[in-house]
Amino acid sequence: MATAHQLHDDELETLKAVYDRVCKERDRLRDARGHFARGLGPAPASAGIATALVAAIGDSNNTLALAFAVVLVGIMILVSTVYDGKPAYRHLYARHLSQARTTVLPPDSLPPKEWYREMIALERDIYGWPPRQKNHYFLPGKRVNDLQEGLDSERTGRVVVAALWVAVVLVLVIAATS
Predict the structure, then answer these.
(1) Cis omega (within 30 of 0) on the bond before 130?
(2) Each residue of 119-165: pLDDT tens digit?
(3) CA end-to-end distance (rounded Å), the chain
(4) How far apart are CA 134 and CA 156, in angstroms?
(5) DSSP H helical ranges for 39-146
(6) How far from the centroid of its chain's Cα atoms is residue 156's Cα?
């Protein structure tokens, strides 16, 4: 038969395991956000360079198509900037701390079980609990409240920027071939 001390130890080990799992999922989402956010900056720059090259060395007299490509590059820069400006983990962490019962981390003086419970609750709030079963697409102005929304927003931005990049290439092909 388990003693009270063994039950206490088992519960503490369970809380440690849950906290570890929540932190691993948080880190996975942070890494995924970084993956999508990294693509938001270089795409407009490369599209701008491609447009400038076609305009500078191309034989095209299709200034309307080139002007349209420049407008699309400008839209890409705007979209990229707005989607890339979503709050990072550290911002979400600070926001959640300020909205929590306390504006500081759970004190070190808490018993371990209570400390783990507080930290699990905090990390789940930042992560976005419960986990979502599907990806969502967000407009650029949508406020990001947790890591899951941040990931979905940056994924949306990456898709929009990629679509704009394809549109720029198509316009440049039209400009170069007409």
Answers:
(1) yes
(2) 899 899 999 988 888 989 998 888 999 999 999 999 999 999 889 98
(3) 85
(4) 13
(5) 42-57, 63-84, 89-99, 112-127
(6) 9
Domain extent, residue 129, equals 4-177
pLDDT of residue 40: 76
DSSP assignment, residue 134?
A: S
pLDDT (0 to 100) of residue 123: 92
pTM summary value: 0.79
CB atoms within 10 A of CB 80: 24
How many C-beta atoms surround the C-beta of residue 39 within 10 A?
18
CA distances from 87 to 91, 127, 157 (A): 6, 13, 14
Phi, psi of 21 (to 5 degrees): -65, -45
The token pair that represents 86 in the structure block: 């979503």
Number of Cα atoms under 13 Å in the Cβ half of residue 43: 28
Question: Within a 10 A sphere around the Cβ of 144, how many other Cβ atoms?
Answer: 22
DSSP assigned state of 135: -
Rounded CA separation 69/170 (Å): 9
Answer for the pair 107, 89: CB distance below 8 angstroms, yes or no.
Answer: no
